[in-house]
Amino acid sequence: MTRTPTILLLALATLGGADAFAQTSGQKPANEQVIVPQVDRRDVRTPRYPNKDFEIGAFLGTYSAENFGSSMVYGLRLGYHITEDVFVQATYGTTEVSDEAFRRVLPGGIFANPKETLKYYNLSAGYNVLPGEIFLGRNVAKASAVYVIAGIGSTDFISQKKQTINFGLGMRVLVRDRLSVQVDIRDHVYSLDLLGENTSTNNVEFTAGLSWYF
Q: Which residues are paired to 96 by β-bridges?
């Protein structure tokens, strides 16, 4: 007779514990977010900033044609900076060469006209050997670079188109974020046949110019 109440008590205790566990497991954690926000995503286009790898410029200077003296030269340059130190550059220049010195000795001179137009174009590769800064006064510093450059092209002179090798060095100073000043000295080497003999000539060019980066 005493075992029946004991069994009933154990059964009731078991049911009560199961009910309490069910109630506890059904409750949500206190830190669970009740409302999940629905935010519409939109595509954001980031602005494109120019990398300023390209440059275009103009130059003016002197061109010393071997045996024919010096004359003013001017032209255009277009460059592309592959890395911070390596760049390529296409150049076009033109000048007028005079045979006045020969006309003093030879009647009629060498050229058909006292002055003949010389034009050249070339494609060159350059390397910044001394990148750094140059100080303009005590408190102003500008980025600068000394570079070496060499390339190949063509020279058109007296109805002769001659393959030309050029090499030299220069210095570039960035005076503004997109503007630089350059000074450049190069030797243009090509052969000419004006006096009955095909002769290799060295023609030194000294120029200064401005370049714009974009």
A: 117
Please state, in angstroms and rounded to a whole number, the distance separating the CA atoms of residues 1 and 164.
Answer: 124
If you search the block for the tokens 């506890």, which residue do you land on?
24
Q: Which residue has the tokens 């210095």?
A: 171
Residue pair 75/91 in contact by the 8 Å Cβ criterion: yes
Complete DSSP assignment for 82-112: SSSSEEEEEEEEEEEEE-HHHHTTSTT-SSS
Q: Is 10 exposed, middle or buried (0-12, 13-18, 19+ CB in 10 A)?
A: exposed
Could you tell me the sign of the dihedral formed by the alpha carbons of 82, 180, 73, 67, in that order? Answer: negative
Q: How many CB atoms lie within 10 A of CB 166?
A: 22
Contacts of 71 (CB under 8 A, 6+ apart): 62, 63, 65, 95, 96, 97, 98
pLDDT digits (tens, 9 = 90+) for 1-58: 455 556 655 555 565 555 554 455 555 555 666 676 677 776 666 555 456 899 999 9
- The secondary element (H helix, E strand) that includes residue 11 is helix 3-26
